[in-house]
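ARCHIVE RECORD
Type: protein–small molecule complex
Small molecule: manganese (II) ion
Source of inputs: curated submission
Record status: active
Notes field left blank by submitter.
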Amino acid sequence: MINIQYSSEVADAKSKNLPVVALESTIITHGMPYPQNVEVAAQVEQDIRDQGATPATMAILDGTLHVGLEAEQLQALGQAQNVAKVSRADMPVCIASGGTGATTVAATMIAARLAGIEVFATGGIGGVHKGAEDSFDISADLLELAQTPVTVVAAGAKAILDLPKTLEVLETQGVPVIAYGQDSFPAFWSAQSDLSSPLRLNSAQEIAKAHATRRAMALPGGQLIANPIPAEAEIPAEELAPVIAQAQQEADAQNVRGKAVTPFLLQRIFELTEGRSLQANIALVRNNARLAAQIAKELNALGR
Ligand code: PSU
Ligand code: MN
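STRUCTURE (tokenized, with ligand):
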């Protein structure tokens, strides 16, 4: 086994078998600008504590996998320049070479599995990019959901992605896509989309039972819980469509490729909406953290 450094609160929660919720760090280093990134990260951790669970933000610091960050470590990571974006492929290389990196959804799921954590909250997952028929750009997050047994709570996927193709890949990979409390698949900034969600559950307890059932059946892979953004924080799709189109055009024109694509698009959307998208993003991440904490508590109550 590799060396894992637990934060003091996660070590304490684990020793008492209390519910823990994993959090990613790419959203901090590549998904939101400083200083809002560290403010939001700390707030989201507190939201989880307020629900009676313990937050475990994942990152690789100087070659050590951290499960839970102390407040100073979170501050330092949020301000650091040129932190690597670490997904499944990069993770062992980063650890072996003593590097520092922020974990994507895929890498956070791997870290959670290593630490025995089964529930994870984020904003949006990576997916199939628009134009994937030419670029072949499909996030490793989707394949991770097919093989690593973690329930991921997200607000659906951003309209920078091709949502129908993203759902098709998840279906092919046997990943349960479960909308929380509604029939349609939520589309990140909008609670509703015109796509229906393959599955629907209405309570944290039902989601926990479905997770425990996969485990009992020894099925590999996790679950994607698509939690709609709170109504008061929504941004109309019509308003964002031109912004996304412009960001996409710029990415194409500048030949942005590979793992740089998603951070480039997120950064441009923040700039072009002058922070409006950020407020919605904060509201939905906090909402996902609260639901994830409830799921982790229910799962804990079900026992092994
Ligand atoms: N989508 C978002 N916000 C994010 C990301 C995706 O709305 O912060 C980040 C997550 O860390 C996700 C990663 O795992 O981008 C996906 O990158 P890629 O598309 O290169 O797989
Ligand atoms: Mn990609």
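CURATOR ANNOTATION: The chain is about 45% helix and 15% strand.
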